[in-house]
Amino acid sequence: MSGPPPPRGRHHVKVNVDTTVCSGHARCNAVAPEVYDLDDLGYCRIPSPEVAPEHEKAARDGAAACPERAITIEA
After folding, report:
1. Are 44 and 35 in contact (CB under 8 A)?
2. What is the pLDDT of residues 42-58, one digit of tens each?
3. Angle ∠(41,56,31) on CA atoms, nearest 5
4. Does residue 69 sit in helix, strand or coil?
5. Which of 6, 9, 47, 62 could disulfide-link to 28, CB 3.0 to 4.6 Å?
6. Extents of the domains making up the chain
7. Sequence-distant (≥ 6) Cβ neighbours of residue 36 within 8 angstroms
């Protein structure tokens, strides 16, 4: 079961990680572990590119924490 639909006027955002740019600083995970996972080598991995509205701020904060700017958010 996926839970209730997002409130009207709010939608999921999509998180993209450019794995060729990620250097494994893991700041995204430190700031927003509910959105960003790390692989076995410490590089960013996202379990699902679709982020629910209640986690949008965390997704944006994690992207902003990336010194390589490897993470982009699509609304």
Report:
1. no
2. 999 999 999 999 999 99
3. 40
4. coil
5. 62
6. 22-74
7. 28, 29, 44, 45, 46, 62, 71
SS3 74: strand
Q: Residue 63 contacts by C-beta under 8 Å, 6 or more apart in sequence? A: 15, 28, 71, 72, 73
Sign, Cα dihedral of 66, 12, 33, 17: negative
Cα–Cα distance, 3 to 19 (Å, whole number):
30
The amino acid occupying position 13 is V
pTM for this one? 0.82
